[in-house]
């Protein structure tokens, strides 16, 4: 008796510490079987490499020397935000209050299903080994960042031969900071890294990795006249199908929409999701394009102010590139949010801005913008500046693929000759005005991004935010 009490106290202590996952065994047969669904989830699901890889080698072209390297990465796989978590929980209550046996694709709910949000403290946070629903979940934000760090070393480790002390910059969202810390852990203890947590509060103004947060001028609804036209009949069809299979269940179109997010975040937290199997392929394509459309008109080329928002960070990276000869530091690593990366890519011009996406139908020939390809959880954008003989070049790699600048790619490895690149960049930022367009002065008097240059003296250590 005494022994069993001791054991249960011990077990409770270990569970609280989050170290020993007690409970159901891992579902080995299911984990890893749903990766083909990741690209349809609007970037909310686990990381995958850019599917539009043109076949260009990631290797440094023959005879060239890397002069400077930047990385801008998204945090890793996470639980839903507070607001999305509340929405998913509402749909879960509807299902969990259903008193009959489930039929059809909801039958899995008959089998002892455990809702994947077990603790509201997990909301907004990375998924980790400790907080996963399944002991073998391979898609945690923690593991993604550590694996990324190892791959990063395999690819660019030579850049650290003469530089073992350096900073890594993270926006002050807790999940972003935690991802940077997992990445640092993954790099290993041969480095002396100082993690600089740069405020993403509105008051940070221009000195931020998350310009979107310092942009009161940004209006989520600015292009709703276009977005409202997108046909969402498929959501009603899903709800009808599930209600027909399960008499008395009253799912709405909005519940159907929520199920896609449930699928994505459950994959991050458990490693598989039976909810993902509710949808037909057509429905996944409809949903996925809806995500592309929204993102294009809220944070991409479809919203005219975005070029200005992305210019805040793009201008800073241009300044670093131009200083490569005088900067001792060769590698600049930063972590932020998906929207900030999309804003940055929009200013660079790496997302097609010649064709505005249509809301009238799902386009195939005219759509190269797939949100999930650019910003899955754990997304990573590299800027490489390298010298070959007497010339220097710049190119971008997104999620393991070289993605050339459409009008400037005649250099080795489809890179852009550096002076051509600076001319190109000047045109991209011409007419942009982050401070004015965003009305930054209404929330902050900080008008310049300085953290890459003054981190030695300022030491950024901002309060972490769950946002
Ligand atoms: C230009 C711009 N300003 C403000 C916003 C408002 N906004 C919505 S989400 C978000 C931060 C990103 O949050 P989330 O979608 O949860 O991305 P994640 O942290 O998962 O990368 C911001 C700043 C925006 N999307 N775009």
UniProtKB/TrEMBL annotation:
Coiled coil (residue ranges): none
Keyword annotations: Glycoprotein, Hydrolase, Signal
Pfam families: His_Phos_2
Broad enzyme group: hydrolase
Bilayer-spanning residue ranges: none
MF terms (GO), sorted A to Z: acid phosphatase activity
Domain of life the protein comes from: Eukaryota
SUPFAM superfamilies reported for this sequence: Phosphoglycerate mutase-like (SSF53254)
PROSITE patterns the UniProt entry points to: HIS_ACID_PHOSPHAT_1, HIS_ACID_PHOSPHAT_2
GO cellular component: fungal-type cell wall
EC number: 3.1.3.2
Catalysis performed (reactions): a phosphate monoester + H2O = an alcohol + phosphate
UniProt similarity note: Belongs to the histidine acid phosphatase family.
Name of the protein in its database record: acid phosphatase
């Amino acid at each position: 008796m005494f022994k069993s009490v001791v054991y249960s106290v011990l077990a409770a202590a270990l569970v609280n510490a989050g170290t020993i996952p007690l409970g159901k065994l891992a579902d080995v047969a299911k984990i890893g079987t749903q990766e083909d669904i990741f690209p349809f989830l609007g970037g909310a699901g686990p990381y995958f490499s850019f599917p539009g890889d043109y076949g260009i080698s990631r290797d440094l072209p023959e005879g060239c020397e890397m002069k400077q390297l930047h990385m801008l990465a998204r945090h890793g796989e996470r639980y839903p935000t507070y607001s999305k978590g509340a929405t998913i929980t509402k749909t879960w209550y509807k299902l969990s209050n259903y008193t009959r046996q489930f039929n059809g694709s909801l039958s899995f709910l008959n089998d002892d299903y455990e809702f994947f949000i077990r603790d509201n403290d997990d909301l907004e946070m990375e998924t980790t080994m400790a907080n996963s629903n399944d002991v073998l979940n391979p898609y945690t934000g923690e593991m993604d960042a550590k694996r990324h760090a190892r791959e990063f070393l395999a690819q660019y480790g030579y850049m650290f031969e003469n530089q073992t002390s350096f900073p890594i910059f993270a926006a002050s969202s807790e999940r972003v900071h935690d991802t940077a810390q997992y990445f640092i852990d993954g790099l290993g203890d041969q480095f002396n890294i100082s993690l600089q947590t740069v405020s993403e509060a509105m008051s940070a103004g221009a000195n931020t990795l998350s310009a979107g947060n310092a942009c009161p001028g940004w209006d989520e609804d600015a292009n709703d006249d276009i977005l409202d036209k997108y046909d969402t009949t498929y959501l009603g069809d899903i709800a009808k199908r599930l209600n027909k299979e399960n008499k008395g269940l009253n799912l709405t179109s909005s519940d159907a929409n929520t199920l896609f997010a449930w699928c994505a975040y459950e994959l991050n937290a458990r490693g598989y999701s039976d909810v993902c199997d509710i949808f037909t392929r057509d429905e996944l394509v409809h949903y996925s394009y809806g995500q592309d459309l929204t993102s294009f008109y809220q944070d991409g080329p479809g919203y005219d102010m975005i070029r200005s928002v992305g210019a805040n960070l793009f201008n800073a990276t241009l300044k670093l590139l131009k200083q490569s000869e005088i900067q001792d530091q060769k590698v600049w690593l930063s972590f932020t949010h998906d929207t900030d990366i999309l804003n940055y890519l929009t200013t660079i011009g790496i997302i097609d801005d010649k064709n505005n996406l249509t809301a009238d139908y799902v386009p195939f020939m005219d759509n190269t913008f797939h949100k999930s390809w650019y910003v899955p959880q754990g997304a990573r954008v590299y800027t490489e500046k390298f010298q070959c003989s007497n010339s220097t070049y710049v190119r971008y790699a997104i999620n393991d693929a070289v993605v050339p600048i459409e009008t400037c790619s005649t250099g080795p490895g489809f890179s852009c000759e550096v002076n051509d690149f600076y001319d190109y960049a000047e045109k991209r930022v011409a007419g942009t005005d982050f401070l004015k367009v965003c009305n930054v002065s209404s929330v902050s008097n900080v008008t310049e991004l300085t953290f890459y240059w003054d981190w030695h003296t300022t030491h950024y250590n901002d309060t972490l935010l769950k946002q």
